[in-house]
Design goal:
Layout (H helix, E strand, L loop, with lengths): L5 H7 L5 H4 L4 H14 L8 E5 L5 H9 L4 E6 L2 H13 L6 E5 L11 E7 L8 H13 L1 E12 L6 H14 L3 H13 L6 H10 L6 E6 L2 E7 L2 H6 L4
Parallel strand pairs: 1-2, 1-4, 2-3, 4-5
Antiparallel strand pairs: 5-7, 6-7
Pfam families: Methyltransf_25
Protein name: SAM-dependent methyltransferase
Organism: Fimbriiglobus ruber
């Protein structure tokens, strides 16, 4: 389902320096985490959270520090990224409440259903619409009926004047060097499935969720939350 091998990609870009590389975007990340905390605030005191494409663990750690009885399963195909996630969890004193799975969601052993899941800047790398829908359906199948999903991706109508204007602002925020501007523009058209927000919302819903609610936009990043559809829960097979 992926456009490239995550293991090779993050070995190449040095997972150990990933957070430092994107530190300039930390305020945007923190705003998203703050709102996810609010979305998930009514979950049980001992909720179980699935973090799909956990990366270096930023959202896992933010949630674990805010909700000290929650337990987490981090799913990440890149071993170097998962190693950083584990180390950060240990440094923050939350690792005892975490399980770390190297691989994709389809290789995660069967377990009790989760209360909620996160998927932040992950599905945008799944280029085929059918595969992207299947990705969300796999998450839905792991959730309790009515369980929450918080998902974010780059999204915009790439054929609109608004996209080209916002992309200029986005490149300034990222402080992209002039020689890499065209490279990044091309990548957004080739390696990242940047779709109009309405289409991303439709894909999430098609994956077994109620109508997603857009709750955050920071530049090109859009974030939705949605609950597992009761109809999907009634027909899904156990995982």
């Amino acid at each position: 389902m992926q456009s490239q091998n995550p293991q090779a990609f993050f070995d190449q870009t040095r997972a150990a320096t990933y957070d430092r590389q994107w530190a300039k975007l930390a305020p945007l990340r923190d705003a998203l985490h703050l709102l996810i905390n609010a979305v998930f605030a009514d979950l049980p005191a001992e909720a179980r959270i699935l973090c799909v494409g956990a990366g270096t663990g930023s959202e896992l750690i933010a949630l674990a520090q805010s909700f000290p009885q929650w337990r987490f399963t981090a799913v990440e195909p890149s071993a170097p990224m998962l190693d950083v996630c584990r180390r950060r969890a240990e440094e923050c004193g939350v690792a005892a409440r975490c399980e770390f799975h190297e691989g994709y969601l389809d290789s995660l052993p069967p377990a009790d259903a989760f209360d909620a899941a996160t998927s932040l800047l992950v599905s945008q790398f799944i280029l085929a619409r059918e595969a992207r829908t299947a990705f969300f359906r796999a998450i839905s199948a792991r959730l309790k009926p009515g369980g929450y999903l918080a998902s974010s991706d780059l999204a915009s109508d790439r054929n609109s004047p608004a996209y080209h204007s916002l992309l200029e602002v986005w490149l300034r925020v990222m402080e992209v060097s002039p020689e890499k501007v065209e490279q990044l523009r091309a990548a957004y058209g080739r390696d990242v499935a940047v779709l109009p927000p309405a289409e991303v919302s439709e894909i999430i819903a098609s994956g077994g969720f109620e109508a997603p609610i857009l709750f955050c936009q920071t530049g090109l990043i859009h974030a939705w939350y949605a609950r597992r559809s009761p109809a999907d829960a009634a027909t899904a097979r156990p995982v």
